[in-house]
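Q: For a teaching handout, I want to show students what a protein-ligand complex looks like in token form. Below are the inputs, and the small molecule is flavin-adenine dinucleotide. Please produce the holo structure.
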Amino acid sequence: MMIEQNRILKDLCSYRTGGAAEFYAAVQTDDELAEALAFAAEKGLEITILGGGYNVLISDKGVSGIVINTAGLNCHTTVNGTEVYAGAGIMIDDLAEMTAQAGLCGMEDMSGIPGTVGGAVRMNAGAFATEIKDIAVCVDMMDWDGRRYRVQNADAGFGYRRADGLKGVVTGAMFRLKQGEPEAIKVRRAEILAKRDEKQPLDFPSCGSVFKRPEGNYAGTLIEKCGLKGFRIGGAVVSEKHANFILNVDNAASDDIYSLILHVQDTVEKETGIRLEREVRFIGF
Ligand SMILES: Cc1cc2nc3c(=O)[nH]c(=O)nc-3n(C[C@H](O)[C@H](O)[C@H](O)COP(=O)(O)OP(=O)(O)OC[C@H]3O[C@@H](n4cnc5c(N)ncnc54)[C@H](O)[C@@H]3O)c2cc1C
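A: Here is the structure, written as tokens, with flavin-adenine dinucleotide included.
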């Protein structure tokens, strides 16, 4: 495993913005991960974990310390009856497709969510009626000192787009699905993919939904009500198609996106009294 210095991160996140990592390691095995963590400990570096980069905004100033990329970590899956084990680097949509083909149901709603198993577990990602917490049996982790441990679902601290009980790096997860009728599963998956295509602005770089759904409301509805659709700062704009998406339409800087996020939060709070909570994770700010 190579540890790089001043590694540009733009190409590793869906917004295609941001600066460089002071140190950077792309790890493929638990041993490489342990090695990268030991390097960080030895040098006293702050650690940032990056998966597929689909839910992050990376500062234009870059990231101090070490960025450990787990998008290639343990990229294997095993199926044992209705139990499916997937390494952290497996893409969630690939897993949804693979399980659909195997006649296992439970992941159809997650079709089309971009990102890795590691990121999805850490975020408790979900769509339509299913979140990771509904199908995860246990999560394999490595703590910051390089020790492996396993967390059962009930101890993962799963909540809306969070899993606060997971301390360290997700290295893999076990999911329990159900035996289903392959054709029906494929139809449901195709429906979900079509719905996402219809509702989401997928032509420009984004992080998906910027804000979490506030209790009893929708972030997109509130943003739209405040007249913010189409509002622009630099190369960043609030999507006309889905107001909870902020798009990089013209070589935006992370600063443009950051400023627009704050503007939306402040405006919505002023007009409605509701402070929207971010779903996107800031890195290096
Ligand atoms: C077009 C679009 C549509 C989207 N739709 C949805 C949706 O429907 N539902 C949904 O929930 N999300 C959605 N998202 C957001 C994103 O897909 C999810 O949050 C996804 O789970 C992020 O995975 P990732 O691997 O890219 O994680 P990253 O973005 O790389 O990281 C996200 C967080 O997880 C942490 N992390 C990543 N990997 C690990 C690991 N191995 N161990 C520990 N921590 C880790 C990171 O430190 C960071 O805090 C969408 C994003 C886009 C761009």
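A: Two things your students might notice: The chain has three domains: 4-69, 77-199, 219-283. The mean pLDDT is 97.
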